[in-house]
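User: structure tokens for this one?
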Amino acid sequence: MRHRSLRTARQRIIGGLSVGLLATLGLAVPAAAHAPRTTEATAPASAPASASKAASGEGSALTPPMGFNNWNSTHCRAEFNEAMVEGIADIFVAKGLKDAGYQYVNLDDCWALPQRDADGKLVPDPARFPNGIKAVADYVHSKGLKLGIYTSAGTKTCDRAGFPGALGHERSDAQQFADWGIDYLKYDNCNNQGVDAKQRYPAMRDALKAASETTGRPIVYSICEWGQNKPWEWAADVGHLWRTTGDISDSWGSMLSIAKQNLPLAPYARPGHWNDPDMLEVGNGGMTDTEYRSHFSLWSVMAAPLLIGTDLRKATPETYQILGNREVIAVDQDPLGKQGSVVSSEGGRWVIAKQLADGSRAVALFNETDRARHIATTAAAVGLDHAPAYRLRDLWRHQDYNTAGAVTATVPAHGTVLYRISPDRRWASYPPAVELGGEGASLTEAGATAQVDTVLTDLGRTPARRVAVRLTGPEGWRIRAVSPTRAGSLPTGKKLTTRWRITAPADAEPGAYDLTAGADYRSPSGAKATARLVSTVHVVVPPPSGTSYASDLPWLSALNGWGPVEKDTSVGESAAGDGHPITLGGTVHARGLGVHAPSKVTYYTGGRCTAFTARVGVDDEEGAAGTVAFEVWADDTKVASTEALTNTDAAKAVTAAIAGAKTVRLVVTDGGDGVTSDHGDWADAAFRC
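Assistant:
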């Protein structure tokens, strides 16, 4: 479903219908929901045998489904058609994605005509699919792949055009899908007429089961009700996977918010029953490759469905490298079927561990912050028994190391290091693991000299020998070591710290610049090994004297729950510049920032500003709902905040004293209601310097 449609769909929910009307629509009378299950892999004794059998899919989706869905890249545009779908199947084969495990080529909304035929049947759009859906299914099947399709558990689908939904037509539509050769159904939640999800979704389950019995074709059933009714507590007896959140967008803030909502649900996932945090955005251009690797790593360690959401006809080699990483895919597809659980989370530094079928653990060290961070755990903390040493496999660098038990890395901003760790009697044959970290300045003004330290630590059971470190930066930057860069040997736990002086060119433009630290070393047997860390230094310019609008100043970083932060407009759909005038309580404001909770926008003030002011609230835009709260942080101190606000509240004036602060963060939270589909506006936001 679509972001703006989610809000309007919520408004259209009109409450439960009568038993008589439910029967008229062909739906079962409500029954008690099943209690959540956390560890057992079988249905509870109270579940009907047919429901249990349908839920298991007789062996379907025993690992999270992998494939493609067109929506994130094409939406309803004309390019979504038969040629595209068949072309994706060709690419799956040609680019090795099929061999890597991807198998479903899924159609999303807009494949049908707006009206059913005289017999009540769905009609494929002849302009998009001139040969019909069955011909496309036959083509996809000829490639050894499977075809998926989309509809909604309401009277119409989610696109504004309103294509036919399946509410009241479950048996007929399911039979059509099975007759066409469909292997996967995504079942959305729009225009649901207030019918309880626990009735609408089982109705299609039963229809798919009946259709499968007549055709012999099992259909994977993907429930897409956006997590509104906590489907993880009841949907294991209904479908194979269930959406746990609203729609993802191609932004760091959206991906991060969705991951955080899905992570606590690990106890509900198991073979044939998966938490679904929505499709992948990898390759769509709204995040960096580092952020896309985090996206792919998190979805894999969470045992999430891996449905490619980018147009593979236009994908870059870097995108194919991320999507095709078979070692990361193996974590997602591990047959034990465990979703990774959070081991620790503090200050934006996450450790997530996933038990694997061979007894090893996948460990994601995830850094949500804007600076490189040290993140650490141990083999014992992730559930491994004591051993003299362990094999530590870096799944992005494809290298093996030995570790005495530490699972540690300095992780780049917005990055993830993904390891696989296990006891291994051959541990001494691997080079020792090392951590290459950095400390010091992350901000500098053009022409100024700053200090940076690199720190190399031996984590292995064996020493690192013939160690040499280096630091490089962009062209024109002066970088000079002022302490030793070499060591003959580093025993376990010992460090080599090197101090560097870095100077940005006097004409350097404000922005983020990469510094790359590298280390070369050898194992005791002489095997070569390397380590690498990319960190970011921001060249900054303080605000000018006087009063400046925030929308006229460059920010250091901007995190937003949906789409980009907008200057002088509200947040729109998901693209930059698609918002509307900032409007609070009927008053239009020409200047300000439009954000979407949760959000965080950080500015460099360099200790030269004294106050920040704004008028804040939920935008008047139709469909804006829920609550938000606003906070202003000067460095690491909260200096102003509001209570939770809704769009029925008047705009609030915010004034914050920020004297002496080097940075100021403008934060919008969900106000404590757990709903993140909320617009927040910083109207007339300004700094006095």
